[in-house]
């Protein structure tokens, strides 16, 4: 009875001890009335509960002890056991097994109830009382001696305690309680045999019981939760004395025991805690003062940093035993071979603990990611030990790979838990090497005062700053000695890796990754650069070529050939990785490497792709040298290409699409094939197209030409990307170039055979004599970009309706390949790749599908050349009249016939970059011709596409709404977008054509693909329009005249143009735009187009404004940004845009608020409307009459309603209140559905019973007043038709 009263007083019916249900009892604390106690009675009740803790806790523990002893006696008594009564209230003898079982069940129920009561109390009771109570000891006892259910309840109590924060508790009480929890838990786990020393093997029973499906699997998971809570929040509270036998040492041993368990879900759960403990630990080695990476990562803090500041340990950093860190690294290294990609058992062979292959991948990917973090932090705490562990792991893996039989890497992995394969071991060793080398190199560099800064593409800014600070600060002799030892050990490890020779393709790829991991180390030992590169070239020779490297690959490629091909590419790619990590170390060896690579190419020992990667590596390394060095290297590499592209024979191949097809993709009938294909006689006949519709019976010729052209364009793109000079090399480069001390890369044999065209020689010579301050490749643009533009024009023309009939079977080059379709349909890309694995695609293949692969590769590489030229060589590009006359027409000329997917790529990679970087002074030459063709076409394409998607019924969401559409509304004022009936008829025609095409579709997947492509293209085009309408600062590099003019004017001219007339209510944050922020701004491209081609600007304006109404939320958000730019331009002096903003933008915004698809951008649209109304609705504004006319077009809006709304709008307090008024006005003129949409994002005020004129005393700090439709003179909401 006493037990029941204690439980009833401690636990509410809801189980919440902190806020018990006092309405159901009249006990302590003075419960209030049935409708709930007031604050005083609640406080009194909680005070009584707190005061009763010293009595209730011992009582509950006594209940636990007596009932447990009674249950034990019953179990031991056999047939005559007697159960003790006492406080348990159970007396008498149990003479039969049924009676004994019933008595034991009663005792266990009492134990469970008492533990449940404790679990509720420990959530809120003061830590001082909890510390002085026997609760922790009782939980430790039941973990050791209780049944499985009682063990879980005891762990739940400890978990509740570890989840608590210190709050206002004293540091002593907090630290003592958490240390007691740790001590009690670890005593229990040690008694259960779950706390092992690192040298102790895992008992088989423990592996079995805690693993998946084991009897104690849930217990292991709950134990891990308690350990995680204790370590993440309270590790510093654990006692650290005596050393080697403290609570903290036992905790680390317990955590390491769980990490050693083979069950991945259990061991992976410990790695996140290990990362936190290692990150917050203080290094104790000689390099502690110059550690850069560990210090940087530790300074970032962690979620548990603020929770462990108690008095149980030092408030600052703590030290972790080096032995524990070393053992942890060995454990992690031993587990990695089971989680690397090569150990994946496959979709149909997943382990028992995973329900699907996707679940298996999630666990192993998380394990790999967290293991890399553990190794990285461990290396910062124990550098010598981490180097030793990595060396041992790599040595063992290399020995296993060398002893493995040929072809062993291709064998599938097993899920049965057998020994890992040699490939998995090597892959794990490479992962370990990659994780530990970065902190080791940074520490060694800091100790020696050397900067390991690379190209900036490998390191982040924090690491670069830390390395520079370490290099500037002198280090102690001990640190220098430790750093020298690290460098010596790393050098030995690298030399051991370079001595290995492995012929298996898969293993060779891993070997290449191992060498590349030492890239940052080469900045410390530049003398090892030459051996590293030589080793890569020698290993490539272990897979000899079956034909001279200048020839294309076989027309039919086997998986074995493909594996060797990829292995050689991986080894060639090492040079690029080393150059990006340590470019300065490679600069002295450039001349020798150029000679060696050229000789290997002449002897046919390199393929085209391998040579491209090697040249790219040298170009990346030359960025650390003077510009004259880069100019020489660029001339040497591209002189043969320039000669070929300047020849009449080559130019004839890209003179027309027909010439391009016959030169690069001729079709020849195979055995049993049909008639001649494109490029031959009769190719244009209808029978030819019909015969080759499926692609059977034809062989794709000109394989060598396709192979060469693809790699030439690829090399051009890589060269422009990689030859940007490093900032650190610019001052030294100019000095050395002026002194003439840079050695020439042209050997006598090379220079004697160099006979380039006059234009190429002049360009290269000019680059060498006077290096461009912008980009080393800038002087070569006028000979390389025109051929690229002609190639792109030929590829675009393949989609022209006049050329399509000539393609025959090659018509598939204009279609999506299976992988592109799968990505749009959300299908498994890996499954599609697996289907093509038997016969992979190749730009030089003989199948018709290879033609599509070639066209796509050349087109996308060409796009990137034009994009990078604008991004890196902008000054030289924009000022070239020759390129301005050629490139815009070539790029945008054939866009009308391209598919949506191609136009999207064109806009993303080329047009968007041009719009963002073209200076206003050159926009008339570049962007106006381009946009005059492109913008009207895109308006037609997008309006037709969305018209086809929409229902002809205007009531359906997404369809055009009469009276609210943007185009063709009379009275919009100057500069209104054109459209009218012509646009409507064009839209209808486009919709009919699309509907006919959809009717002929084979299935709904085609409609899904079309819808996805249309949405992607719409978003991309609106981004392009936003870039056109955005003003940017003047760049002196690309527009020196404009920068000089702005400087002479003191920034006043452009500043006034950019900020004059801007309303303080226009900016998105509700604040005014400062005039200083607009100083030095140039006019946007749209302003230039408005001046030179108003009709072109009209098309862009219509498209951008109509984007608010298309049923795509992402596109509507970008359209909002475009309209906000228009608002800013209209206020900065472009009065011709005011009619568009006041008329069409307002109508489109109101229409957008009635669409379900745009509800996620409702806030942005309302802010746009608020900005327009705040600017133009003021009674004295010249455009207020036009805006009032637009609003008066809404049903039910009278002049009196507008007057009331205007008064309330300009009397509102802040932007939020104004947006609320707009929502209420629109909800009043629309129907219930629109009202629901307006209330979906934020609360919509009630429409009845609220005063529109609040009392003055509440207007300063009171709530936002609610304006009802009735207050504005409108009828009730539901009395009006649904018009939105």
From TrEMBL:
Residues 1-36, 671-697, 726-751, 950-1002, 1249-1273 are annotated as: Disordered. Residues 217-440, 486-947, 1000-1237 form the Exportin-5 C-terminal domain. Transmembrane segments: none annotated. One of its GO terms (biological process) is RNA export from nucleus. One of its GO terms (molecular function) is nuclear export signal receptor activity. One of its GO terms (cellular component) is RNA nuclear export complex. It comes from Chlamydomonas incerta. Pfam families: Exportin-5. SUPFAM superfamilies: ARM repeat (SSF48371). This is Exportin-5 C-terminal domain-containing protein. The lineage of its organism: Eukaryota, Viridiplantae, Chlorophyta, core chlorophytes, Chlorophyceae. Residues 728-751 have a biased composition (Low complexity). Residues 970-995 have a biased composition (Gly residues).
């Amino acid at each position: 009875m006493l037990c029941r009263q204690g439980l009833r007083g401690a636990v509410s019916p809801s189980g919440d001890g902190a806020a018990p249900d006092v309405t159901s009892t009249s006990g302590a604390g003075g419960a209030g009335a049935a409708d709930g106690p007031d604050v005083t009675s609640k406080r009194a009740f909680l005070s009584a509960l707190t005061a009763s803790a010293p009595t209730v806790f011992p009582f509950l523990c006594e209940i636990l002890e007596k009932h447990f002893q009674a249950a034990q006696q019953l179990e031991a008594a056999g047939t005559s056991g007697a159960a003790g009564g006492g406080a348990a209230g159970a007396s008498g003898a149990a003479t039969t097994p049924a009676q004994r079982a019933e008595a034991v069940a009663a005792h266990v129920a009492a134990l469970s109830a008492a533990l449940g009561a404790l679990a509720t109390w420990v959530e809120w009771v003061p830590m001082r009382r909890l510390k002085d109570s026997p609760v922790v000891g009782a939980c430790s006892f039941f973990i050791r001696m209780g049944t499985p259910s009682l063990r879980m309840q005891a762990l739940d109590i400890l978990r509740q305690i570890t989840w608590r924060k210190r709050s206002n508790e004293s540091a002593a009480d907090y630290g003592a309680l958490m240390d007691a929890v740790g001590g009690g838990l670890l005593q229990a786990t040690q008694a259960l045999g779950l706390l092992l020393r690192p040298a102790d093997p895992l008992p088989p029973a423990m592996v079995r019981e805690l693993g998946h499906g084991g009897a104690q699997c849930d217990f292991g998971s709950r134990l891990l939760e308690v350990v995680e809570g204790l370590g993440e929040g309270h590790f510093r509270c654990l006692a650290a004395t005596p050393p080697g036998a403290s609570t903290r040492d036992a905790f680390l041993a317990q955590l390491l025991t769980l990490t050693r368990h083979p069950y991945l879900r259990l061991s992976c759960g410990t790695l996140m805690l290990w990362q936190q403990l290692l990150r917050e630990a203080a290094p104790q080695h000689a390099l502690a003062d110059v550690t850069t990476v560990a210090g940087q990562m530790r300074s970032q803090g962690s979620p548990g940093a603020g929770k462990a500041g108690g008095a149980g340990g030092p408030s600052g950093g703590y030290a972790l035993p080096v032995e524990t860190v070393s053992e942890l690294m060995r454990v992690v290294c031993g587990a990695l071979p089971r989680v690397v990609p090569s150990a994946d058992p496959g979709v149909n062979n997943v382990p028992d603990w995973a329900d699907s292959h996707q679940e298996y991948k999630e666990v192993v990917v998380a394990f790999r990611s967290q293991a890399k973090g553990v190794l990285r932090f461990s290396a910062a705490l124990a550098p010598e030990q981490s180097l030793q562990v990595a060396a041992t792991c790599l040595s063992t893996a290399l020995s296993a790979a060398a002893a493995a039989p040929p072809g062993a890497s291709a064998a599938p992995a097993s899920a049965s838990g057998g020994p890992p394969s040699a490939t998995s071991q090597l892959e794990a060793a490479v992962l370990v090497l990659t994780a530990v080398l970065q902190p080791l190199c940074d520490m060694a560099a800091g100790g020696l005062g050397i900067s390991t800064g690379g190209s900036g593409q490998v390191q982040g800014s924090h690491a670069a700053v830390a390395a520079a600070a370490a290099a500037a600060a002198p280090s102690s002799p001990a640190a220098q000695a430790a750093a020298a030892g690290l460098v010596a050990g790393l050098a030995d490890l690298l030399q051991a890796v370079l001595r290995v020779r492995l012929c298996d393709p898969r293993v060779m790829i891993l070997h290449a990754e191992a060498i590349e991991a030492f890239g940052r180390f080469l900045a410390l030992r530049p003398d090892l650069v030459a051996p590293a590169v030589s080793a890569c070239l020698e290993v490539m020779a272990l897979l000899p070529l079956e034909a001279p490297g200048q020839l294309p690959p076989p027309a039919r490629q086997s998986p074995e050939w493909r594996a060797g091909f990829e292995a050689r590419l991986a080894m060639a790619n090492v040079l690029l990785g080393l150059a990006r990590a340590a470019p300065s170390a490679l600069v002295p060896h450039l001349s020798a490497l150029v000679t060696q690579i050229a000789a290997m190419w002449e002897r046919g020992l390199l393929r085209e792709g391998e040579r491209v990667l090697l040249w790219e590596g040298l170009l990346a390394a030359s960025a650390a040298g003077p510009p004259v060095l880069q100019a020489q290297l660029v001339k040497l590499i591209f002189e043969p290409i320039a000669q070929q592209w300047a020849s009449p024979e080559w130019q004839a191949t890209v003179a027309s699409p027909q010439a391009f097809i016959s030169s690069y993709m001729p079709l020849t009938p195979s055995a049993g094939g049909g008639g001649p294909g494109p490029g031959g006689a009769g190719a244009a006949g209808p029978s030819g197209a019909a015969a080759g519709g499926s692609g059977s019976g034809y062989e794709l010729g000109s394989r060598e030409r396709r192979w060469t052209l693809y790699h030439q364009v690829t090399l051009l793109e890589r060269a422009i990307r990689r030859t940007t000079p490093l900032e650190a090399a610019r001052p030294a480069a100019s000095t050395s170039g002026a002194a003439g001390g840079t050695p020439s890369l042209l050997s006598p044999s090379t220079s004697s055979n160099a006979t380039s065209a006059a234009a190429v020689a002049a360009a290269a010579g000019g680059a060498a004599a006077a290096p461009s301050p912008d980009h080393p490749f800038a002087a070569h643009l006028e000979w390389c970009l025109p051929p690229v533009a002609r190639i792109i024009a030929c590829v675009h023309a393949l989609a022209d309706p006049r050329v399509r009939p000539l393609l025959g079977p090659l018509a598939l080059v204009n279609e999506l390949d299976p992988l592109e379709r799968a990505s749009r349909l959300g299908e498994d890309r890996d499954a599609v790749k697996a289907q093509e694995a038997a016969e992979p695609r190749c730009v030089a293949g003989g199948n018709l599908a290879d033609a599509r692969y070639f066209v796509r590769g050349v087109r996308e590489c060409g796009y990137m050349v034009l994009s990078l030229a604008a991004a890196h060589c902008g000054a030289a590009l924009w000022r070239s009249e020759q390129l301005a006359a050629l490139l815009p027409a070539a790029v945008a000329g054939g866009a009308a016939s391209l598919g949506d997917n191609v136009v999207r790529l064109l806009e993303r990679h080329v047009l968007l970059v041009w719009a963002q970087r073209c200076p206003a002074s050159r926009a008339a030459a570049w962007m106006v011709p381009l946009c005059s063709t492109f913008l009207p076409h895109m308006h037609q394409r997008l309006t037709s596409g969305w018209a086809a998607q929409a229902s002809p019924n205007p009531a359906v969401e997404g369809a055009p709404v009469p009276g609210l559409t943007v185009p063709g509304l009379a009275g919009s004022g100057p500069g209104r977008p054109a459209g009218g009936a012509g646009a409507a008829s064009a839209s209808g025609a486009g919709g009919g054509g699309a509907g006919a095409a959809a009717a002929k579709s084979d299935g709904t997947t085609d409609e899904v693909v079309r819808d996805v492509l249309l949405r992607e293209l719409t978003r991309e085009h609106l981004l392009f329009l936003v870039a056109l309408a955005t003003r940017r600062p003047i760049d002196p590099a690309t527009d020196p005249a404009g920068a000089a003019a702005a400087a002479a004017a003191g920034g006043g001219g452009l500043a006034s143009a950019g900020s004059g007339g801007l309303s303080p209510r226009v900016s998105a944050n509700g604040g005014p735009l400062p005039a200083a922020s607009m100083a030095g701004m140039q006019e946007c491209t749209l302003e230039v187009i408005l001046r030179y081609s108003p009709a072109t600007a009209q098309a862009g304006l219509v498209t951008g404004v109509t984007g608010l109404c298309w049923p795509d939320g992402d596109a509507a958000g970008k359209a909002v940004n475009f309209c906000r730019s228009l608002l800013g331009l209209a206020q900065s002096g472009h009065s011709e845009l005011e009619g568009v903003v006041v008329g069409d933008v307002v109508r489109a915004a109101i229409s957008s608020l009635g669409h379900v698809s745009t509800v996620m951008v409702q806030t942005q649209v309302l802010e746009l409307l608020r900005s327009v109304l705040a600017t133009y609705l003021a009674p004295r504004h010249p455009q207020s009459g036009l805006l009032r006319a637009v609003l008066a077009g809404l049903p039910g809006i009278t002049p009196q309603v507008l007057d009331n709304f205007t008064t309330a709008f300009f009397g509102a307090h802040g932007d939020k209140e104004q947006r609320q008024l707009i929502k209420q006005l629109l909800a009043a003129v629309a129907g219930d559905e629109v009202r629901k949409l307006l209330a979906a994002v934020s609360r919509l005020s009630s429409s009845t019973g609220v005063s529109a004129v609040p009392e003055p005393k509440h207007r300063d700090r009171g709530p936002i007043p609610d304006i009802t439709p009735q207050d504005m003179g409108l009828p009730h909401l539901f009395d009006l038709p649904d018009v939105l």
